[in-house]
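Anyone opening a protein record will find just a pair of labelled lines. A complete record is shown below as an example:
=====
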Amino acid sequence: MDIPFPRSIHDALLAESLAEKHHWAPGSGWVTFRVKSDQDLKHALWLMRLSYLRYALKSSADPRTLFEQESEALQLSTHFKSLLEQFMPKGQANH
């Protein structure tokens, strides 16, 4: 599975071994994750939800609530939360 991320999240995923450098474009924000088991499938879904969240925050009627709900559902670390907060609409982050 190949999935795009902003560079900051891409770098964190690689640093924590949660994904691999993209197999065709290793210098991009894209990552690769190989699905070989049911557990891998769960992680692949986590990566897709993580990628989607940044887009959803920009268009949500209530981005703060969405951020809190998804952060909990995805069990995001403080580090990943701080990386994603930058995608909150102005005035919504750090409340």
User: Anything to note?
Assistant: The helical segments are 7-15, 38-59, 63-73, 78-85.
